[in-house]
Amino acid sequence: MNGRGREIAPGRSRSPKIHENFAAAPHYLRGRFFLHEYDITLKNVLRRLTGTVLRDLTGFAVTRWHNTELPEVQNRRLDMLGETADGTLVHIELQSTNQAGMPLRMLEYAAAIFRQFGRFPEQIVLYVGAAKLRMTGRLSGGNLQFRCRMVDIRELDAERLIAGGRIEDNVLAVLLRLGDEGEAVRRILKRIARCGPRRRTESLRELMLLAGLRDLGPTIEREAKQMPILNDIMDHPVLGRERKRGIEIGLEKGLERGLAKGRQEGELLLLMRQINQRFGPVTAPVRKRIEALPAARLEKIGLRLLDAHSLDELLR
User: Fold this and answer.
1) Does residue 284 belong to any structural domain of this protein?
2) Which domain range does residue 300 map to?
3) Is residue 265 a part of any domain in this protein?
4) Which of 248, 263, 273, 294 is exposed most, by the fewest CB atoms within 10 A?
5) Using CA atoms, how far apart are residues 209 and 207, in angstroms rounded to an integer?
6) Which runs of E-coded beta strand occur in 73-142?
7) Tens-digit pLDDT profile for residues 197-208
8) Are 114 and 120 a contacting pair, CB within 8 Å?
9) Number of domains in the chain
10) Looking at the domain assignment, is residue 283 inside a domain?
11) Which of 55, 63, 108 is closest to 81 using CA atoms?
12) pLDDT of res. 70
């Protein structure tokens, strides 16, 4: 889910070929690229949440995240698989559309998780779509009775997240139940404006992409124009295109580089931020070494971050 387009120097135009390819792509294919971009962004934000906020969303206080690649014939990949302090596995799937087969899909995930970990997970489908939640979490037939939790993120009030001091909480709040949308967006943007330059730009990108799920892009653009520090960012060669074309920059990037590259960049951004917070800035050679790693390897390193005592130990 995060709209990371390749930066283009001022004065340079986008490749006409990329633009033409995007325009010619079928609607369903463009939608798939958007869902991939929002998926990465939302997972990155959720992984950085505090235990309290995540417990409000899912009912569980996840203390660490697992690698979500499952060794199955179909090579299924979960959205998020975490574990609580008492060893309970928590499986979270992000869903933006209503799918009739969701309970069966969750049952298949549960069986695959049991094969790998030897225990069944608590399962939550976190629905972030615009339409009303219509999916059921139940599946039954013969002696089979299966149930997973369906959580519509809009059932939660955004006020506590907006009032909180963590920027991740503020960004996620745009998907929750908002009262006065304009006022809520203003408060979120004011919080982003107080961040450092790099974090400010990244947070605004995340907010713009997630806001696309709520058609709040025009509201964000209008309010950001009232804040000079954010208005400058909106005029940036990259973010300016996001403002003018919404999330098309992320979709074009998907057409140009492929979904695998988009996932790798999402995992890299999250891991580098975590490493900088824990061990401080890394040298250019170390950064180059990390940037060359595939997405699956980056995710595994991120899962070991809290247990590693040094950067060398982490990257072994």
Assistant:
1) yes
2) 259-315
3) yes
4) 294
5) 5
6) 80-84, 89-95, 122-127, 138-141
7) 888 888 888 888
8) yes
9) 1
10) yes
11) 63
12) 54
